[in-house]
Design a protein that fits this description.
Elements lengths: L4 E2 L3 E5 L4 E6 L2 E4 L4 E4 L3 H18 L6 E6 L2 E5 L2 E2 L2 E8 L2 H7 L6 E11 L11 H6 L5 H23 L3 E13 L2 E5 L7 E5 L9 H4 L5 H12 L5
Antiparallel strand pairs: 1-2, 2-3, 3-7, 4-5, 6-7, 8-11, 9-10, 9-11, 11-12, 11-13
Helix pairs in contact: 1-6
């Protein structure tokens, strides 16, 4: 099947006018692709975790692009026009946020913080304020408010979901797309796009293990999958 698009973590294949097949790769990148590597089994984990979380969110009223899993590494999704934005929800200071403001990693925030960044690899995905998003016509006012409200709701749902599985959601990144006048949650939700800390040990079980050369990366991803599928803590 001819590729429609290949990114750092996924390949998209067309399946007609309305649907796409998403293939999840084992390749890993960090720091705007300046660091590259391979995490064996990552594609399988991210596909299965994303599918489980999309189903969970759909069951709680969140509209997504997800349709079904079609193989260990592939899912079928609705075609959407991706907004050129990354939406980050933070519960603690970590990563670039902690560095930006000189905070200790893990510092709790007074409340959930929604940030936006422009999806632009050459520019390094810079932060962008809501006023600039509107001024540049990247999203409408109602769309932006809907994205913000949905992100906060997703945050509540994911915190509850992972807390039951002994994991704390520190932060995560979402992407959204337009389809027939509706804004849908799109892309993926996986250890690639979230910070997940074990509630007992504080150990990260996410892509930070790759970013920081902590070791045990593939094992951490498999542990997240095990817990997401309800196989115990």
């Amino acid at each position: 099947m001819e590729k429609l698009y290949e990114g750092k973590a996924k390949v998209l294949y067309p399946e007609g006018e309305d649907t796409l097949r998403v293939y999840f790769k084992d390749e890993a990148t960090a720091f705007n692709a300046r660091k590259r590597g391979l995490i064996p089994g990552k594609g399988v984990v991210n596909n299965k975790v994303s599918a489980a979380l999309f189903r969970y969110l759909e069951a709680h009223g969140i509209r997504t692009h997800f349709l079904e899993e079609v193989s260990e590494r592939e899912m079928r999704v609705k075609r959407v026009e991706i907004l050129p934005l990354e939406v980050i929800l933070r519960f603690r200071a970590a990563g670039s946020f902690a560095k930006r403001y000189g905070l200790e990693e893990g510092t709790p925030l007074k409340g959930p913080l929604v940030e936006f960044s422009l999806k632009n690899d050459p520019l390094g995905d810079p932060l962008i304020c809501p006023e600039a998003i509107l001024a540049l016509g990247l999203a409408g006012e109602a769309e932006l408010e809907g994205v913000r409200a949905t992100t906060l709701k997703v945050g509540e749902l994911l915190k509850a979901f992972f807390a039951e599985r002994g994991l704390e959601v520190v932060d995560f990144k979402l992407e959204f797309g337009r389809r027939e006048g509706e804004i849908l949650l799109a892309d993926e939700i996986s250890p690639d796009t979230m910070r997940l800390w074990d509630m007992e040990t504080g150990e990260p079980l996410d892509k930070d293990r790759f970013r920081k050369d902590l070791g045990g990366v593939a094992e951490a991803y498999q542990e997240v999958l095990r817990r997401v599928l309800g196989e115990g803590v």
